[in-house]
Amino acid sequence: MASTPSPHTTHLHSLISSSTNHNKPSNPSSFKLIHSFSTSFSSTISNVLKTADISLSRDLNGVVSTPKPTILVSEKLGEAGLDLLRSFADVDCSYDLSPQDLCAKISLCDALIVRSGTKVTREVFVAAQGRIKVVGRAGVGIDNVDLQAATEFGCLVVNAPTANTIAAAEHGIALLTSMARNVAQADASMKAGKWLRSKYVGVSLVGKTLAVMGFGKVGSEVARRAKGLGMHVIAHDPYAPADRARAIGVDLVSFEQAIGTADFISLHMPLTPATNKVFNDDTFAKMKKGVRLINVARGGVIDEDALVRALDSGIVAQAALDVFTVEPPPKDSKLVQHENVTVTPHLGASTKEAQEGVAIEIAEAVVGALNGELSATAVNAPMVPPEVLFELAPYVVLAEKLGRLAVQLVTGGSGIQSVKVIYKSARDPDSLDTRLLRAMVTKGIIEPISDTIINLVNADFSAKQKGLRISEERIIVDSSPEYPVESIQVQICNVQSKFASALLENGDISIEGKVKYGIPHLTRVGPFSVDVSLEGNLILCKQVDQPGMIGKVGNILGESNVNVSFMSVGRTVKRKHAIMAIGVDEEPDKDTQKKIGEVSAVEEFVFLKL
């Protein structure tokens, strides 16, 4: 007796046992995934992280239009960046907002752009009520943004890490050289009417050792310039590749070796819980007496009271600081007023060129994110290079659709707790970055059976919150390494299936797909091989393998005005059983589905929405 599929939407909410209402934006059209792959590459990536509000309105002529998003700019931004934003969105430039004012405004905004002075706290995301989709940090450091809260609320955070790199490096070198030659102190002395040549004897840089603490973009540029000044440069960075350091003549060393052997120490590390006040009394005690310190990174990495003590004792001969724990620092700050300290008011990125560059870079990142593009500068989403994004584009769609198909095959009330994703590829497993694909499988599985809106930012977090364990396996196959993935297989473990033919011998639901000619295809259901394009909707029938079955089912669909886009039949043994996969443009009504189930050779079937 053929089984008629139960409605696949009404009972699915119980399938994930710990599903909650957590993290659903108030606007259900946000982060909408467009399921057609007959689009350009940019539209495909939009599917990964769709952030544009697509609420529609009509003008006086009745033409449907999409309202512009609203972008709040809470700190001054270069005109070139503002012009770019205004060409795309309604821009609200409101500076010097109190935390209360920011929370009051944020629920009316789709994006927020800040510099270092605005604190984007959890309270801001709560007040946004799910509307805020992108936070743009005009600069590198993002310690003023609560990344955990942003991720939980599905908000993308982007920064502008490249435009001010040279400016920050140049300022670091300026502080280094001016400190070594007492430029600031000598200038102040002369303007006070004094001529103190002997008091301001400096030190040479040639042959001295500079320790660069943090060998990222700015740190490496400082190292290049210091090498040009004849300095011996060493660096500490637990994540920096040694070959990149060697390429510019820099030795990577341990933290202790760096601070213990350096004549000059230049700080370029982010402010994290691990680096907060990492330069303290204990650290200063391990330094060479008379060391000189430069900081153009983040003020919080230095215990400022400890630095004053180190300056007074002579352990630190001089310091040149552009950043402080509290900005601006108190007017009576002992550190700022210390005679051996040169200070500037956070000028690292303050060149005309850098300001315009940062404004343009962050504006492009925010506009791109609102358009659904995955920014290469996203800081709370998988960092996928553009060339990898381009290569993975069709596999992103395949992964999401396989997840959607697999979850629709589940029935019963036991809940989905374990999913396994298997990637077959000719490439070395270490060279295959699957974070993006895993996120899209997660999206495909959770969204159809939950009221949580899933995007690339919150996919892993949402899976964890719902008690859904997603494991991955990579299998090397003998195929062309030209393509990143030969196939993707999604298995849902320890559940019942409304289509028993999708079960493997171990009882797990299993479907597999490939990309052919740029189009995602379903290639296996359980043990049965099929070959169908994943477009439109799908009917799967298990039947006795006999002549005329395609015609019988096709006629039933045709009589009900259901358009068939393709058919494919796969079997395990000739004249035994087969799986017929039928692509349809419309969902057959209940009477049509009943007629299909009444065909004597049809043992079971299921309708699936793609």
Automatic annotation (TrEMBL):
Annotated stretches, region: Disordered: 1-23
SUPFAM superfamilies (UniProt xref): ACT-like (SSF55021), Formate/glycerate dehydrogenase catalytic domain-like (SSF52283), NAD(P)-binding Rossmann-fold domains (SSF51735), Serine metabolism enzymes domain (SSF143548)
InterPro entries: ACT-like_dom_sf (IPR045865), ACT_dom (IPR002912), ASB_dom_sf (IPR029009), D-isomer_2_OHA_DH_cat_dom (IPR006139), D-isomer_DH_CS (IPR029753), D-isomer_DH_CS1 (IPR029752), D-isomer_DH_NAD-bd (IPR006140), NAD(P)-bd_dom_sf (IPR036291)
EC number: 1.1.1.95
PROSITE patterns for the chain: ACT (PS51671), D_2_HYDROXYACID_DH_1 (PS00065), D_2_HYDROXYACID_DH_2 (PS00670), D_2_HYDROXYACID_DH_3 (PS00671)
Protein location: Plastid, Chloroplast
GO cellular component annotations of the record: chloroplast stroma
Every ACT domain range: 538-610
Pathway note: Amino-acid biosynthesis; L-serine biosynthesis; L-serine from 3-phospho-D-glycerate: step 1/3
Gene3D superfamilies found in the cross-reference section: 3.30.70.260, D-3-phosphoglycerate dehydrogenase, domain 3, NAD(P)-binding Rossmann-like Domain
Pfam families: 2-Hacid_dh, 2-Hacid_dh_C, ACT, PGDH_inter
GO biological process, one term: L-serine biosynthetic process
A GO MF term: phosphoglycerate dehydrogenase activity
Catalytic reaction(s) noted: (2R)-3-phosphoglycerate + NAD(+) = 3-phosphooxypyruvate + NADH + H(+)
Keywords carried by this UniProt record: Amino-acid biosynthesis, Chloroplast, NAD, Oxidoreductase, Plastid, Serine biosynthesis, Transit peptide
Biased composition (Low complexity): 8-23
Enzyme class: oxidoreductase
Annotated NCBIfam families: PGDH
Record family assignment: Belongs to the D-isomer specific 2-hydroxyacid dehydrogenase family.
The protein's name in its UniProt record: D-3-phosphoglycerate dehydrogenase
Organism name: Anisodus tanguticus
